[in-house]
């Protein structure tokens, strides 16, 4: 069997022939022509402006009858929808149709279109094929660390599953396939050939908006992959109901010979590489998913889940990281809640982004440490550094597959590194955390001192002691005189921590009382045995 995906042995086809085919079959004169370019050692055909074009001018006009859609393939819209909502996707049905049409050779009405698909062989405008067609081991080697590896393997499994269901179409659409005197699909085509055809169709299909389901996936002559996809262009391939055409109005001025670009839709580069073998610069849709799961073993699981449900969040929540966008606004509030260790701190947790704030320095350090560790672990999965990716991209010896892979990895790493730099995630001893921790410790010490002084006064008075500098200070008199002036060198002039240590020592030595145990002991031996120590930390 030929290595070609669709075509017959007669391979040659002129650029003029490709452009003239739509015109010969009733299409208006096109505003594009085909130009041959060499990209990463591969010769590619690219749609370019046939003349100078102004913004808004139609560069492409392909009549309905020259567009391949499922309703044309099956000549029955209800059957087309049935097939694509049962076991086979639109892409699988279109692939099967063109593979049978290939067997008809020059007799096929789509002969010239199929021949151009085979000339391209599923390569994108960067010279690389979809990773679905890469050699064994290249996906794991070139894309190591990227979540795309798992997506590629999942897509390949899906294609294999659809291949096993191809015979279903043969029997359900008998009226269509009676024109093909060939074997049932799984006997006529190998899985490898079907995968090649699927990737070629996937790289060429246009997703039309505002049309019936049976028309939404379309193969358009002179469209992609001849047409360059861009993540920032505003021009779209659309269906004009009145003219009954698929049209492309350019979004800017083009000079003759300049490659024409169309918007690829809101697809991240990971999807663009998988579908079309390309990676675009400055793609605003690039994202890296970060999933947080609340463990069922958490003693506060039910209480935390209730808070999450009130905010339309689940106990397994996925957040999307984007470059130069900052952390997702609910990520840190979610992690703060997840790391609450008691009911008191849980009451302080809020998912209202307008007033979300750290719960405590300890909680914030835990949150930032976990986030930083997770991001670093993901960065460590990559086999190459960003600097090594740059070397590959600029290399004159690296192949197109290595280069598009390096472009994607560079973007993914930039997103993860940018997330680490946000909100002090990378530096856990940031000024914010340090200052907040010190402030919190001071406030806690003041609260403990106030409580300890009250307890000291109560216990002293029970023993008949009538005066102690450690007792609470009497409030100032109403006449405004400064009766509580603190004199230099007095006990009140000591630091809060020093005064707290004095009061705690007094309580323990004089009254066998521990403020943090909350009780008095019968003897010193009993206190030494049961109380972990004088400070709050050891409790």
How would you portray this structure in words?
It comes from Coccomyxa subellipsoidea (strain C-169). Keywords: Methyltransferase, S-adenosyl-L-methionine, Transferase. This is DUF4187 domain-containing protein. It holds the Pfam family Rubis-subs-bind. The protein is mainly α and 539 residues long. It folds into three domains: 262 residues, set domain protein methyltransferase, domain 1 (Alpha-Beta Complex); 141 residues, set domain protein methyltransferase, domain 2 (Alpha-Beta Complex); 75 residues, no CATH class. The protein contains 21 helices and 13 strands. It has a three-stranded antiparallel β-sheet, with no helix packed on it. A hairpin with a 2-residue loop joins strand 1 and strand 2. The relative contact order is 0.09.
Question: What is the CA-based Rg, rounded?
Answer: 35 Å
Q: What is the mean pLDDT?
A: 84
Give the tally of structural domains.
3
Structural category is mainly alpha
CATH topology of the largest domain: set domain protein methyltransferase, domain 1
**What coarse outline follows from CA principal-axis ratios?**
elongated
- The CATH first-level class of the largest domain comes to Alpha Beta
**What ranges have pLDDT less than 50 throughout 5 or more consecutive residues?**
1-15
């Amino acid at each position: 069997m030929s290595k070609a995906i669709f075509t017959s042995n007669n391979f040659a086809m002129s650029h003029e022939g490709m452009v003239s085919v739509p015109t010969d079959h009733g299409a208006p004169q096109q505003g594009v022509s085909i130009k041959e370019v060499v990209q990463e050692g591969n010769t590619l055909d690219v749609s370019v402006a046939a003349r100078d074009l102004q913004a808004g001018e139609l560069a492409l006009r392909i009549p309905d009858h020259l567009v391949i859609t499922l309703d044309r393939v099956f000549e029955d819209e209800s059957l087309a929808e049935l097939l694509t909502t049962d076991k086979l996707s639109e892409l699988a049905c279109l692939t099967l149709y063109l593979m049978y049409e290939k067997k008809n050779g020059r007799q096929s009405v789509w002969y010239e279109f199929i021949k151009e698909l085979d000339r391209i062989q599923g390569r994108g405008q960067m010279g690389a094929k979809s990773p679905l067609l890469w050699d064994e081991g290249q996906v794991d080697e070139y894309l190591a660390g990227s979540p795309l590896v798992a997506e590629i393997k999942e897509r390949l499994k899906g294609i294999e599953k659809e291949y096993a269901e191809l015979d279903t179409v043969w029997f359900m659409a008998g009226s269509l396939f009676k024109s093909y005197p060939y074997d049932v699909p799984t006997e006529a085509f190998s899985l490898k050939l079907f995968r090649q055809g699927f990737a070629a169709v996937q790289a060429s299909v246009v997703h039309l908006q505002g049309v019936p389901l049976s028309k939404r996936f379309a193969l358009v002559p002179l469209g992609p992959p001849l047409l360059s996809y861009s993540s920032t262009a505003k021009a779209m391939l659309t269906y004009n109901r009145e003219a009954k055409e698929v049209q492309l109005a350019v979004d800017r001025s083009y000079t003759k010979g300049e490659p024409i670009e169309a918007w690829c839709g809101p697809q991240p580069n990971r999807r663009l590489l998988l579908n079309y073998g390309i990676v675009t610069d400055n793609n605003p849709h690039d994202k890296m998913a970060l999933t947080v799961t609340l463990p069922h073993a958490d003693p506060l699981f039910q209480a935390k889940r209730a808070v999450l449900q009130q905010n339309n969040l689940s106990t397994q929540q996925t957040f999307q990281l984007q470059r130069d966008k900052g952390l997702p606004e609910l990520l840190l509030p979610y992690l703060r809640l997840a790391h609450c260790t008691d009911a008191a701190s849980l009451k302080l947790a809020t998912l209202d982004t307008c007033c979300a704030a750290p719960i405590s320095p300890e909680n914030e350090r835990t949150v930032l440490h976990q986030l930083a560790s997770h991001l670093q672990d993901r960065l460590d999965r990559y086999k190459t550094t960003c600097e090594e990716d740059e070397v590959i991209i600029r290399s004159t010896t690296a192949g197109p597959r290595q280069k598009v892979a390096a472009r994607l990895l560079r973007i993914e790493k930039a997103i993860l590194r940018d997330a680490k730099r946000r909100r002090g995630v990378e530096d856990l001893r940031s000024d914010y955390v340090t200052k907040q921790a010190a402030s919190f410790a001071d406030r806690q010490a003041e609260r403990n001192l106030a409580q300890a002084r009250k307890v000291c006064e109560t216990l002293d008075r029970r023993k008949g002691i009538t005066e102690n500098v450690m007792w609470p200070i009497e409030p100032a008199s109403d006449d405004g005189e400064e009766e509580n002036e603190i004199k230099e060198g007095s006990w009140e002039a000591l630091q809060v921590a020093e005064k707290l240590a004095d009061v705690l020592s007094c309580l323990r030595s004089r009254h066998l009382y521990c403020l943090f145990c909350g009780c008095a002991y019968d003897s010193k031996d009993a206190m030494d045995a049961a109380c972990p120590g004088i400070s709050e930390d050891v409790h």
